Amino acid sequence: MRKAKILIKMLVFPLICTLIFCGIQTIFTVKATPSSGIVSQFYDLPEDSVDVLFLGSCNIYNNVSTVTLWEEYGISAYNFATSDQSMCTSYYFLKSALSRQQPKLVVIDVLMLIEYLEITEENYRWALDYMPLNKTKLEFSQAIYGKGGSIDRANARKQDLSVSEVVENSGDATLNILSGLFPMLRYHDRWLDIGKDDFTSASLAEPALFMGFEALFPSVALTVRSDYMDESRELSAYTVSISHLLDEAVEYLAKIQTLCEQEGIPLLLIKTPTAHYWNLVRSQNVTELAAEMGLEFIDYNLLTDAFGLDWSTDTYTWEGRRLNARGAEKFTRYLGENLLERWPLPDRRSEEAYTALWAPVMERYRKEERLYALTQENDLAGFLEVLADYTGHYEVIVSYYGDGENLSAALLEVLGKLGFCPQKSADGRLLAYIGIMDRTGMLYEESSPERYLTYNNAPFPDFLIQVQNTAIGINHNNFTRVQGGLAIVVYDRQENRLIDAVGCSLEAGDELIRSEISSDIFAVPAGSP
Questions:
Q1: DSSP 481
Q2: CA nearest neighbour of 74 among 358, 464, 399, 491
Q3: CB 405 within 8 A of CB 507
Q4: Is-contact 200 40, C-beta < 8 A?
Q5: Beta strands in 157-280 (DSSP E)
Q6: Upper half-sphere CA count for residue 512 (Cβ side, 13 Å)
Q7: Among candidate residues 338, 251, 322, the one with its CA nearest the CA of residue 289
């Protein structure tokens, strides 16, 4: 009996240590969005639930709307993409995906074939870190970190060194195959940077992802030349020189082609619209390669007129790097028609398992559309009208402080629709007011003739609300910056994010002033690959 207990302890202890080690992998792993979310969420999908698998870089996860494919055609698709994805990554993603899914079509954006893309270790880690631990992950890690692997070849090109010299000179013990399998070995020194978000998976899902599609709602007009595909356009010698195809990328594309042929899966090459990354020389180079390999290639940069792409409204950055949600919807509707013309993809909208899978995706997408519409309202009346449609979805905090005469009856009526009812004094003047509403209804409401009205309480765990006049704060962050008038903060406590924070002085009309914090959140970021 004693020997049995000793044996059990000998087995249990290493098992516990292994479980602990595996459990803290995600904690130490760097959280990169949206790439890490796209990868991790793919492996949460039910088996055999993806009919079309997209592979590529941000040009895929921003430009191809899986939402539109589902809503318009009933196509269940997933954007299995990462920032600056390499063709090597695409190959191992596909190999890993086929252990769980049996897609009826694989679609690849060919930007990965072009020489000028510089793939860094960070790009590979975004792909590798959230793959499940299996044989494919081991092979991928070997391809990246093995002698002569992708990291070494990329560094050799940049530094004009041989591969052996790069390996000898790196001196970084964490750049090895084992660290590819166990991210903690790569990120062990992150312990000083770990925050509470590292202990949850929530950080992997921001920004909102819809089966790998990241919807970019803001519209920024293209300010560079829109004739980027014109054959008469004169390209610089440098642009032409970096337009040739990467040997390694072509090699892995051939591997993808072989894998698809073995599995009986059609393979389609496309180039989604991008005025920044593409030109006619690159298109011609890929066209020639596709013909040599016997693959179909569609360059949608040559077809933008066919689906009505408007570079003044349908792009997200002034260089035209990627499409916004409106542009993605236009392009994807046309893409969906092309796919159905060529392949008998099933319409899954009448199948219960698929509708159950897609229902929360569509609900979340409509929510994001509404939120963006709210943040685009610049006058108080319009803002309150839009907000009235969302009562019960968010936490809303309203504060009024003024001379009691400049909040119109119409605005009071709209506030009443929301459930906020500021009171008036006996002489008809509006009193100072604080109203706090959660998803179930009014949480706190007070009207007072006092000049200074304050609220300082934590009505929910870890959720402190502070209001003084028109200064509204949550957890010691002040989200408004008007000195008098009306201030409103809309917060989503379930997702722990600020939706909008506005103020209106009411002295010179009802134009909204958004806080700098809110403006930063909704600002269009600088262009990135």
A1: -
A2: 358
A3: no
A4: no
A5: 209-210, 213-214, 267-271
A6: 23
A7: 251
Measured between alpha carbons, how far apart are the two ends of the chain, in Å? 63
Which distant-in-sequence residues (6+ apart) come within 8 Å of 168 by Cβ?
none
Q: How far is CA 15 from CA 183, 199, 207, 471, in A?
A: 19, 22, 36, 53
Triad 338, 347, 69: Cα angle to 5°: 50
Closest CA to 439 of 492, 378, 393: 393
CA–CA separation, 447 vs 466, rounded Å? 16
Each residue's pLDDT expressed in tens, for the chain with a length of 529 residues: 555 555 555 555 555 544 444 555 555 555 555 577 888 889 889 999 999 999 998 889 999 999 999 999 999 999 999 888 889 999 999 999 999 999 999 999 999 998 666 667 777 777 777 888 888 888 888 887 776 566 655 555 554 444 444 444 444 545 566 565 556 556 544 545 555 555 554 444 444 589 999 988 888 888 887 788 887 777 776 576 667 888 889 999 999 999 999 999 999 999 999 988 888 989 999 999 999 999 999 999 999 999 999 999 999 888 888 899 999 999 999 999 999 999 999 999 999 999 999 999 998 898 888 888 888 888 888 888 888 877 777 899 999 887 766 677 778 888 888 889 888 888 888 888 999 998 888 999 999 888 778 899 888 887 888 888 888 888 888 888 777 788 999 988 887 888 889 988 877 677 888 876 655 555 444 333 3
Residue type at position 24: I
* 376: Cβ contacts below 8 Å, ≥ 6 apart: none
Strands (E), 375-426: 395-401
Residue that has been written with the tokens 């997408």 in this structure: 365
Task: Pull the structure tokens for residue 403.
Answer: 């001379």
Rounded to two decimals, the pTM is 0.79
Alpha-carbon radius of gyration of the chain:
27
Cα 224-225-231 angle, rounded to 5 deg = 155
By DSSP bridging, strand 485-492 and strand 497-504 are antiparallel
